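Recall the central idea of this unit: under ordinary conditions, the amino acid sequence of a chain determines the structure it adopts. In this exercise we apply that idea directly, starting from the sequence alone.
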Amino acid sequence: MFDLEPSITEWRRQMLAAGLKTGRRLDELESHLREEISALKSAGASEAVAFEQAVARLGSPHSVYTEFNKIRVGHIWPVKIGWALWLAATLLLAGGLMRGLLAGRLNLLLGAHVLSVTAGYGGAMLLGGFGILYVVWGRSGRLSPARRQSLNRAVHRFGPLAAGLVIEGLLLGMLWSRQNLGRYWDWDPKEIGGLCASAWLVALVVMQRYGRLRDRAVMLLGIGGSTVVSLAWFGGNLWDNHWRLRASGSETGWLLAVLLGIHLVFLVMGMTPAREARES
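Accordingly, the structure predicted from this sequence is:
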């Protein structure tokens, strides 16, 4: 009769023999293995079959060791492209705001607020992109240990950055409001959206660090965070200007609907067993 725990212990021994000497990496791999086993069992596979297929998906001890050596080199190219695009967009926005500041068309406090909020929202949207990539690779059977680890590391680094920028932008906006409108808070839809986005991103960071969540859960939370930011970013503007936008066809409304639809599709895909698992 098949016994899962001794089988996992033997699998760990083989990984150690292949050169994976770091306990933390072995623990991460075991977490991935158990996640795959759980998904396969949910799809109807027996425990023995689920274990065999999960091990096969992770790869042989030698191939896993090779993949983890790749991680030392750095992030995979989609993550690097995401970082580069976010940084380039942030610098371009900063340059435009600086020109407005030098020309006297923009207040320093307001410019800093716009830069912080936009960069933070953009970072949160990038988190959702990483989560979607995780789901796509997972569903297609191409989620190698190197790809999984690179995405996981990117989310853990970008989450606090996005949360910090959004909170900073929210506080700067409150100071500008007090300075120009005589009050810190006006219950404006964009203010409420920023507050909700800040709360979600802070919760995401806390759960990442202390919740002992599996990678799949973290990635789905990233997609959820991107959904909340979409509502805060575009929904706030849509609500704030709904009469004008409705008269002009509401392009923002269509954009928001498309974004929410995409996020919902990948959230559902990420929460259901992979197709290949159900057919096995």
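The chain has a mean pLDDT of 81.
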